[in-house]
Design brief:
- The protein has helices at 9-14, 37-48, 62-69, 76-81, 90-94, 115-131, 143-150, 152-172, 191-200; strands at 24-29, 52-57, 85-89, 104-105, 136-141, 179-185, 203-211, 214-221, 233-238, 241-244.
- The chain has a single domain, classed as P-loop containing nucleotide triphosphate hydrolases (Rossmann fold).
- Helix 7 crosses helix 8.
- It contains 9 helices and 10 strands.
- Helix 5 (90-94) links the parallel strand 3 (85-89) and strand 4 (104-105).
């Protein structure tokens, strides 16, 4: 079985060896948690292995996101300028912000009704012009941000359509299968919303704050582990980085 490393050995072991191609990984966190940064560390690790990153940003201005990611050692501006990453910036699209950067893409006249076709059009353009024969690794920052913009029910329906499109491409296309990383703050959405995306995801990691800068991550779901969640992992902020300890 061809498993893809997250780049974090302890997480690889906890989920059964790595990520299956064509799989989704959901990282659930709470307010003040730093667990979400692990999603970007996985993305950066996969890019170093030759994959291509595609970030959907619905939550923060890019300057704020870059500042947050400094503590995880992730430089999305450098990755973008090196043509190893693209950003589909929903936040900037809504508020009419143009960064003048070739790796940042925008949706015109954003609406819930036209989101899927417009997003898909941009993604296909990136696929042809940038990704080529590399594996796409998508990261949604964040699901709760999209739910705030479109409403939970619309967001769930949108991802059902994305899943159908992904299934068709799996059948019809012959290329490296993608990985998708979903980030979700559970404090901002309903239990119903969390339940739906836990169902959509093959892997579910959940972080909880213990005390100070110490958190634990539990594997709630993995297709490679029969009884997930038995050995929680600890993560800690130290020296400006997020480490699994």
């Amino acid at each position: 079985m061809n498993l893809l490393s997250t780049g974090i050995k302890k997480i690889d072991r906890a989920i059964g060896g790595g990520l299956l191609p064509d799989s989704n990984i959901l990282i659930i966190h709470e307010t003040y948690s730093l667990g979400w940064i692990i999603g970007f560390e996985i993305l950066q690790s996969r890019i170093k292995e030759g994959d291509y990153g595609v970030i959907m940003n619905t939550t923060l201005p890019l300057s704020s996101l870059e500042m947050e990611l400094e503590q995880g050692g992730v430089d999305i501006d450098k990755l973008g300028k090196d043509r190893r990453l693209s950003i589909i910036d929903v936040f900037a699209s809504i508020f009419k912000i143009d960064y003048g950067l070739g790796y940042v893409h925008y949706l015109s006249n954003f609406s819930a009704e036209t989101f899927v076709p417009k997003y898909s059009q941009i993604y296909l353009r990136i696929l042809k012009s940038e990704i080529g024969d590399r594996r796409p690794v998508g990261l949604d920052f964040t699901l709760d941000g999209l739910a705030f913009i479109m409403g939970e029910e619309n967001t769930i329906k949108v991802f059902q359509r994305f899943m159908a499109l992904k299934e068709k491409s799996r059948i019809e296309e012959n290329r490296k299968r993608p990985i998708n990383i979903f980030l979700l703050n559970r404090d901002r959405v309903s239990k119903n919303f969390v339940s739906w995306f836990s169902l959509y995801s093959h892997y579910v990691l959940e972080s909880r704050i213990l005390e100070g800068s110490l958190e634990v991550i539990e594997v709630k779901k993995s297709p490679l582990v029969y009884t997930p969640g038995e050995k929680p992992l600890k993560i800690k902020k130290r020296r400006g980085r997020i480490d699994v300890v």
